[in-house]
Design a protein that fits this description.
- The structure holds two protein chains of two kinds.
- By secondary structure, chain A is α+β, with helices and mostly antiparallel strands.
- Chain A has three domains: 57 residues; 136 residues, no CATH class; 47 residues, LysM domain (Membrane-bound Lytic Murein Transglycosylase D, Chain A), CATH 3.10.350.
- Chain A contains twelve helices and ten strands.
- In chain A, the strands form four sheets. Chain A has a four-stranded antiparallel sheet with strand order 5-6-7-8. A two-stranded antiparallel ribbon of chain A has the order 1-2. Chain A has a two-stranded antiparallel sheet with strand order 3-4.
- In chain A, a hairpin with a 2-residue loop joins strand 1 and strand 2.
- In chain A, helix 1 crosses helix 2 and helix 7 runs antiparallel to helix 10.
- The longest helix of chain A is centred in the N-terminal third of the chain and has 26 residues.
- Chain A is elongated and about 75 Å long.
- The two termini of chain A are 45 Å apart.
- By secondary structure, chain B is mostly helical.
- Chain B folds into two domains: 91 residues, Rna Polymerase Sigma Factor, Chain: A (Orthogonal Bundle); 58 residues, Winged helix-like DNA-binding domain superfamily/Winged helix DNA-binding domain (Arc Repressor Mutant, subunit A), CATH 1.10.10.10.
- Chain B is 64% helix and 0% strand.
- In chain B, helix 3 packs across helix 4 and helix 4 packs across helix 5.
- Chain B is globular, with a radius of gyration of 19 Å.
- The chains are: A alpha+beta, B mainly alpha.
- Chains A and B meet through helix 1, helix 3, helix 4, helix 6 and strand 9 of A and helix 2, helix 3, helix 4, helix 5 and helix 6 of B.
Chain lengths: 294, 203
């Protein structure tokens, strides 16, 4: 059998077009000829890659359907440099379901990133104003459950604001923070999350509360960087659940445990993800976000 | 349609995103409608809208508009799988605890294997590089080889169906297909970042 004939036969085998007789013949040739066997292995890899990715790759060239005009206008309107304000959210026209899924990052990752970013800048700021809060910037992302927040992406988005008050907030929430703020102790409330932060000469506090929480979590940051990290990780525990997952409508007889088992999740993830802490019975029909790692 | 610059997209320029949304919407939609996902029209529209909202913050991660297109594909795939999971979970009977990967749904969706598909944003980016690599590979193919590879792996046709469509013998389908498969490794060898995927699926 020539190499070309073998390649053609291999293609038939890989596409399930070969007869039993041809398969047997192909197998025996592979056993006898190492070079041919390697050729087949390469073709098998190529076939696997194409089967998995070619239809998706083809999607990259798609020109239709056209985006609906109303959606285009809505999306363009939502593109605003780094700020999210209450009025924007109220007029966005998103359905509740869209808000549940689309604003997930806004609800969880932004507050967490804010907390981490603050810690990062506390550490960066050690030489300014005689503040002895921190010495070394953490060089690794915190890992909480399966959620990773990397500093790198957020570093660029940090701005300093608050006049002489040494407030550090990510730019993503900064605009909303300062637009809505009339005095220092007022909550930032941009409908998605509440976060209150301040760093003074002699104190550093972080208060964070998601809509799903009845009470805010608050800590006084200690001055030692190592302990700050521990504190931050502790603070983030209520928000520590995988960001991937599915929406699930509660059905009669469902419990957190049964849903978790059925959808490969954990009750301790589902609770904070949906603000269910302390609730006895699940409301039938309610859509829950079920965090999943696989 | 004028293509926006990546720099304008990173800077959240609204007119640039207007053009980008026009380009990316059909990509997200078609991905959701691709053979292995095959969402309904309404679900594909919903997923595409979600993808475009998510992709706005992803421009900083890519190095070209092409990269953003590929990332749109992977994000759409991830969201489509999530949608399928939701649909199959919602339609499952009580007391049934089968793995969702083996679900039989009531909405007309076909079985889907999703065990390894829940990607993180970083994995989205990595996967998008592979998809872009495969797209670039297909673009390097010409004539009959390209047509046959497209019939078999994009459209999922059999030898016989491909032969009818392309008006050639099934024997020739095998000839051109084997040439296409053998060329993939050579193309990937030119891009060391992609070679790690070669052989991964065969193992």
């Amino acid at each position: 059998m020539t190499e070309e004939e073998f390649s053609e036969l291999s293609a038939k085998v890989l596409t399930n077009e070969a007869t039993e007789e041809e398969r047997s013949k192909h197998l025996s040739v592979c056993k006898e000829n190492q070079s041919y066997k390697e050729t087949f292995e390469d073709m098998k890899s190529a076939a696997g890659l194409l089967t998995e990715n070619a239809p998706l790759a083809e999607s990259m060239n798609s020109k239709d359907p056209e985006i609906p005009e109303f959606l285009l206008e809505q999306l363009v309107d939502e593109v605003k440099p780094q700020s999210i304000s209450t009025s924007d959210k109220e007029t966005s026209g998103s359905t509740p379901e869209e808000n549940n899924t689309v604003s997930f990052w806004a609800k969880v990752a932004i507050p967490i990133a804010a907390v981490l970013a603050i810690a990062f800048y506390i550490n960066q700021d050690s030489g300014e104003g005689g503040n002895s809060i921190a010495q070394n910037a953490p060089d690794e992302p915190y890992v909480v459950a399966s959620l990773e927040v990397e500093f790198g992406r957020w570093n660029e988005q940090i701005v300093r604001g608050g006049d002489d008050k040494k407030d550090w907030v990510p730019e993503t929430i900064g605009s909303a923070f300062y637009e809505n703020k009339t005095e220092r102790n007022e909550w930032l409330d941009n409908s998605s999350e509440k976060i209150r932060i301040w760093i003074d000469e002699d104190e550093a506090k972080i208060m964070i509360q998601l809509p799903s929480q009845k009470e805010a979590s608050m800590i006084d940051l200690v001055l030692e960087p190592d302990k700050q990290k521990e504190q931050l990780v502790e603070l983030m525990k209520p928000f520590s659940f995988p960001k991937n997952g599915v929406m699930y409508p509660v059905q009669a007889g469902d419990t957190l445990q049964s849903i978790a088992e059925e959808l490969k999740s954990k009750p301790e993830w589902i609770e904070p993800a949906n603000g269910l802490s302390g609730e006895g019975t699940l409301q039938q029909g309610r859509e829950l976000f079920i965090p999943q790692v696989d | 349609m004028e293509e926006p610059t990546l720099n304008d997209l990173v800077n959240k320029d609204q007119s640039a995103w207007r053009e980008a949304f026009k380009i990316l919407y059909p990509i997200a939609y078609r991905t959701a409608k691709s053979p292995r996902l095959n969402l309904s029209d309404a679900d594909a529209e919903e997923v595409a809208a979600q993808v475009l909202r998510e992709i706005v913050d992803c421009a900083v991660k890519v190095s070209s508009l092409d990269g953003l297109k590929a990332l749109t594909v992977t994000v759409s795939k991830r969201r489509s799988i999530s949608k399928l999971r939701m649909l199959t979970a919602g339609s499952r009977g009580r007391g049934v605890t089968d793995s969702i990967d083996e679900s039989k749904d009531k909405e007309g969706y076909s079985e889907i294997q999703v065990s390894d598909e829940a990607l993180t944003p970083d994995q989205d980016l990595e996967k998008s590089e592979l998809i872009k690599g495969v797209r670039d590979f297909i673009d390097t193919l010409e004539g009959n080889v390209r047509d046959v590879v497209a019939c078999i792996y994009v459209e999922g046709l059999t030898y016989k169906e491909s032969a009818q469509k392309l008006d050639m013998t099934t024997s020739n389908i095998g000839v051109y297909l084997s040439r296409g498969l053998q060329r993939l490794k050579k193309e990937f060898e030119k891009k060391p970042d992609l070679m790690k995927y070669f052989g991964e699926l065969a193992r």
